Fold:
Amino acid sequence: MNAKRYLGIIIFLFVSTTKAQQNGPLISFEATTIDYGIIENGSEGSRSFIFTNTGTSDLVIENVQSTCGCTVPKKPEAPIAPGEKGEIVIHYDTKRTGPFRKTITVTTNVEGDSITALKLRGTVLPPQ
Structure:
């Protein structure tokens, strides 16, 4: 085989692979960690993870689970269209004193990469 034919095959495979990777839903978070910092006991514990569907079809957030009952996540119920933003709202119980590190597991319909780990951290001061 000559060099032009090899080059043609390589270009065809590259274009085919690239197009295959671009199809379907994709999720891109603005941040995967929320740092509450040092917060007052009983203060507002709600925060949001903002994401965008950077894919070519609807993104479905299938499940959102936290590592404990002190962290309550709320997922969007409707599919997120390509190019649209969504949010996963997290409420941490700020009456629990001391440092915390929690993980939120997000399961989506993204093929091959359906699970994303989101992190929370901070310290709640003792009541005054």
The chain has one helix and eight strands. The helical segments are 3-22. The chain has a mean pLDDT of 90. Residues 62 and 68 are 19 Å apart (CA to CA).
